[in-house]
Amino acid sequence: MKKIDYKWFALFLLWVAFFLQQGTRQVYGPLLGSIQGAVGATDIQLGFVSTVFTLVYGITIPFAGFAADLFSRKWMVVAGVAIFSAGILTSGFVTCIGALVVTYGFVNGFGQPFYYPSSTSLISQLHADSKATALSLLQLGMYGGVIGCSWLAGWFAGLGTEGWRLPFKVLGALGLCWAAVLALTLRNTGISRSRTTEDTGSQLVATDTDTDRVTIGAALKAMFTKPAAVLIALALGMEVYVDVGFKTWMPNYLSETFHVSKASAGLNAVLWHYLGAALGIVIGSRIGDRLVKRHPTIRFWVIGGGLLLGAPFIFLMSQATTYLICCVAMFLFGVFRGAYDSNNFAAFFDVVEPRYHASAAGFNLMIAFLFGCFSPTVLGWTKEHYSMATGLATLSCAYLAGVVLLVFACRFFATPKPRSVADR
To answer: Which of 218, 255, 167 is nearest to 357 (CA)?
Structure first.
C-alpha cells in the first residue's frame, strides 16, 4: 500500500475504534432510568459511576501517553480497545451498582486512556500537512459513536426490564473483534531520528533530536514549561466538565422534563448537538489549517470563540420551555462546541515538541478529566436538592471560565512549536 494511501487507511481504522470508544461511553446515560430500576440506586450513586470512570481515566491517561511514546503506539491502541471492550461487555452481566462501578468505572476507565494519546499522535505524525483536518475527521467518529450508540441504548432500554444489558453486550463484543482487526492491519509506525529547529529569538538553528529516548521528566518538562499548553489543558478541563455532565444526564432530563420515550430521549439528547458539532468542526478545521501560517495563534481564537459563543446556548438549553427550543439550543451549542473540538489538540500540538505529543497529551487529558470527573455527581446532587435544569444551567459558567484561560494563553504565551526541517 502506498504511503499516501496508508495514512488515510490508518485514519479509517482509528476512526472506527474511536466510534466504539465514544459509543461505549455514551450508552450509560440513556440507560440511567432502566439501571436504576433494575439494580436499585440513587441519583447520586448513578452519577458516581460516571465520576469513577472519569477519575480512573484521568489518573491513567498520563501513563498511557508516556507508554505510547516509550513503547509502541499501535499496541497501546490495540490494548486500549481490548480492555475497555472487555469492561463494557462484562457490564452487561452485573446485578448491583457496586459491580457496575468496577466494570464500567474501573475496567472501562482504565482501558480507554490507552487509545486516545496513541491514536492522535499517530495521526499527527502521518498527517503533518493536514493535521487539523485529519483530527477533525477522527472527531467525527466520536460524534457518530455518541449519536448511534445513544439511540441504540435507548431503543434497547425500551424492550423490557433486561433490555438495558444488550447495548453493553453488543458493543463490548464488537470492540473485542475490532481490537483483533487493529492488531492485524495497523502498522507499528514509529518516529524516526530527525532534525528539528529551535527558535533562538533571532534565527532558527537546526539540531539533532534523539526520539528513541523518552523519560517522564522530559515529557513533563515538554508540557509544563509551556504555559500555553498548561492553559489549554485547564480550558479542556472546563469543556470536559460540561461534556461529561451533559452526556450523562441530558437523556434523563429530556425524558423526565418533556415526557418523551427513552429511545427518543437517548437519540435527541445527542443527535442535534452532534449534528451541530459536525458542522462546526468542518468550518473550524478549515479556518485553522488555512490561516495558521499567517496567524500562528488562530487556533486559540477558534477554540476560545467556540466556548464563548457556546455558553449562552447551554443556558438556553437548560431553561427551554418547549422540546423544540431545547433541541435548537442543543444544535447551536453543538456548532460552537465543534469549533472548539476542531482546533483544540492541533493548538496543543503546536506548542509541544512532536516527540512528546503522546506523553504531553496524556498529561493534558489527565488535568482535564480529573477536573471534569466531578460533574456527573455534582449534577446528580443538584437534581436531588434543586433541579436538573439548575445543574445544566451552571455548565455555561465552565465554558466562560475556559474562555478566560484561552485568551490569557493566546495573549501572553502562545508560540509555535519547533518544526522538522522536512516539514519546512
So the answer is: 218
Q: Is residue 82 part of a domain?
A: yes
**Residue 66's domain spans which residues?**
3-186+213-412
Q: Is residue 195 part of a domain?
A: no
Helices and strands, number each (H, E), in the chain: 17, 2
**For position 44, which CATH number holds?**
1.20.1250.20
The whole-angstrom separation of Cα 284 and Cα 228 is: 20
H or E element at residue 347: helix 323-350
Residue 150 exposed, middle or buried by CB count within 10 Å (0-12, 13-18, 19+)? buried
Q: Tens digit of pLDDT for each residue in 326-342?
A: 999 999 999 999 889 88
In angstroms, rounded to a whole number, what is the distance separating the alpha carbons of residues 144 and 321?
28
By mean pLDDT, which of 6-15, 34-43, 367-376 is the weakest? 34-43
Which residue, 310, 402, 286, 409, is CA-closest to 350?
409
420 SS3 class: strand
| Percent of residues, the chain, with pLDDT higher than 90 | 19
**The total number of structural domains that make up the chain:** 1
Residue 83 domain-assigned?
A: yes
Q: Which three cell numbers stand for residue 248?
A: 450523562
E strands in 302-349 = none
**Are the C-beta atoms of residues 76 and 122 closer than 8 Å to each other?**
no
